[in-house]
Design brief:
Layout lengths: L4 E7 L2 H18 L8 E2 L3 E6 L4 H13 L4 E11 L3 E6 L9 E6 L14 E18 L2
Antiparallel strand pairs: 1-3, 1-7, 2-6, 4-5, 4-7, 5-6
Length: 140
Amino acid sequence: MDKKWIYYGVFFSDVTKRALLDYTAKLSVEKGFTIPEDWKIYGDHMTLVFNDRSEKAQEDAEFYEEQLVGKDVSLRVTHVGVSDRAVALGVDYQTANEHSHITIAIAPDAKPLESNDITNWMTTGGDFYVTGKVNKFVKH
């Protein structure tokens, strides 16, 4: 397998990204959190597996490459996670992360992977779905 890949993910259209951001804004009112204006906004993809060069990551990547690349998948948003460094939407879909999620926003000095450290997850009702396309992000 080509090891130049950075991650496999579910990538969202601009329309879907806007829907994710709007939904997060609605949740912020319902759940009582805010995203500071200086935070970096994401919501463009959900990482399935990051290339940490481990054997497990290579196996997962091989599965995604053979079975899912190019296919649309539906994701059900079940939680919103909030920390002082990141906000993410938890989804009901298997990924390599302990909490499968879509990073929505991070603090100016944070990295997107810090959404993996969120411990405060609140349920959303599970009635919001988005669709994206599985692909890989490759180092050029």
